[in-house]
Automatic annotation (TrEMBL):
<dbReference type="InterPro" id="IPR029044">
    <property type="entry name" value="Nucleotide-diphossugar_trans"/>
</dbReference>
<dbReference type="Pfam" id="PF01128">
    <property type="entry name" value="IspD"/>
</dbReference>
<keyword id="KW-0414">Isoprene biosynthesis</keyword>
<feature type="site" description="Positions MEP for the nucleophilic attack">
    <location>
        <position position="214"/>
    </location>
</feature>
<protein>
    <recommendedName>
        <fullName>2-C-methyl-D-erythritol 4-phosphate cytidylyltransferase</fullName>
        <ecNumber>2.7.7.60</ecNumber>
    </recommendedName>
</protein>
<keyword id="KW-0808">Transferase</keyword>
<feature type="site" description="Transition state stabilizer">
    <location>
        <position position="25"/>
    </location>
</feature>
<comment type="pathway">
    <text>Isoprenoid biosynthesis; isopentenyl diphosphate biosynthesis via DXP pathway; isopentenyl diphosphate from 1-deoxy-D-xylulose 5-phosphate: step 2/6.</text>
</comment>
<dbReference type="InterPro" id="IPR034683">
    <property type="entry name" value="IspD/TarI"/>
</dbReference>
<comment type="function">
    <text>Catalyzes the formation of 4-diphosphocytidyl-2-C-methyl-D-erythritol from CTP and 2-C-methyl-D-erythritol 4-phosphate (MEP).</text>
</comment>
<comment type="similarity">
    <text>Belongs to the IspD/TarI cytidylyltransferase family. IspD subfamily.</text>
</comment>
<dbReference type="InterPro" id="IPR050088">
    <property type="entry name" value="IspD/TarI_cytidylyltransf_bact"/>
</dbReference>
<dbReference type="InterPro" id="IPR001228">
    <property type="entry name" value="IspD"/>
</dbReference>
<dbReference type="InterPro" id="IPR018294">
    <property type="entry name" value="ISPD_synthase_CS"/>
</dbReference>
<feature type="site" description="Transition state stabilizer">
    <location>
        <position position="18"/>
    </location>
</feature>
<dbReference type="GO" id="GO:0016779">
    <property type="term" value="F:nucleotidyltransferase activity"/>
</dbReference>
<keyword id="KW-0548">Nucleotidyltransferase</keyword>
């Protein structure tokens, strides 16, 4: 049987409301090119990635210009205009489109367009760690801050023990068939691993990087700039 291939699936159909910018955060400039371009470049620099699927909203007016500017630099890129109302719906739209090329056992690495700090080394770390794994897993970081649970008045009610607590990152890597079925059955999850857990399976946690953070709020872009310049 042929070895399972690895496909990247980049949900890029969000509006970036928390960023409050004039256009979606995945298209904001970061160190001279859009946030999303950094992610697509990184996956194209990873030799293990057979294809790169970007899921955008049907009305996205930016992605085509990006692809034209990239020219021959993105030969493995496929644009899927199946972005949905939630990240989960967008990922499902991408998985269904990818079904024409991937088989059930192929790996899918789902990575947020808003995490431009991804590196080839992190991709290879995750792929290597899960190569023989039957479930799959995700990049994540052990929680280092003390965590508080608040009451309804915004006061600290209690401290949450942080042992064995991790902050999920992406990529989250699962086999195409399993991930599709899991997400179809879990309408309210915020990440792929959550859907897999609902099946009673335990995704493997693989150490990520603080530089692989998600650009969510305005100050995140400035921090990402510092990282890109090697200052952060
Ligand atoms: N309906 C959606 C919502 C989010 N995403 C993507 O999922 C990733 C992580 O989501 P998030 O950081 O929440 O992005 P937004 O939903 O755009 O941000 P906000 O919640 O601030 O609007 C982003 O790359 C975003 O483009 C998506 O493809 N489809
Ligand atoms: C997938 C994710 O980035 C893992 O931390 C996170 O769940 C995305 O959440 P968002 O609210 O869609 O940004």
């Amino acid at each position: 049987m042929n070895p399972a291939r690895h496909f990247a699936l980049i949900p890029a159909a969000g509006v970036g409301s928390r960023m409050g910018a004039s256009h979606p955060k995945q298209y904001l400039d970061l160190a001279g090119k859009p946030v999303l371009a950094h992610v697509i470049d990184t996956f194209h620099a990873a030799p293990s990635i057979a294809g790169v699927v970007v899921v955008v909203s049907p009305e996205d007016g930016y992605i085509d210009d990006l692809a034209v500017k990239a020219g021959q630099a993105w030969p493995r890129l496929s644009i899927v205009r199946k972005g949905g109302a939630t990240r989960r719906e967008s990922v499902l739209g991408g998985l269904r489109a990818l079904a024409d090329h991937a088989n059930e056992e192929d790996w899918v690495l789902v990575h947020d367009a808003a995490r431009p700090g991804l590196t080839v080394a992190l991709i290879e770390r995750l792929a290597h760690a899960l190569a023989e794994d039957r479930v799959g897993g995700l990049l994540a970081l052990p929680v280092v801050d003390t965590l508080k649970r608040s009451d309804d008045d915004g006061r600290a009610e209690r401290t949450v023990p942080r042992e064995q607590l991790w902050a999920a990152q992406t990529p989250q890597m699962f086999r195409h068939g399993l991930l599709t079925r899991a997400l179809e059955q879990a309408p309210d999850v915020t990440d792929e691993a959550g859907a897999i857990e609902r099946l009673g399976l335990k995704p493997k946690l693989v150490e990520g990087s603080p530089r692989n953070f998600k650009i969510t709020l305005p100050h995140d872009l400035a921090l990402a700039e510092l990282h890109m310049k090697g200052l952060g």
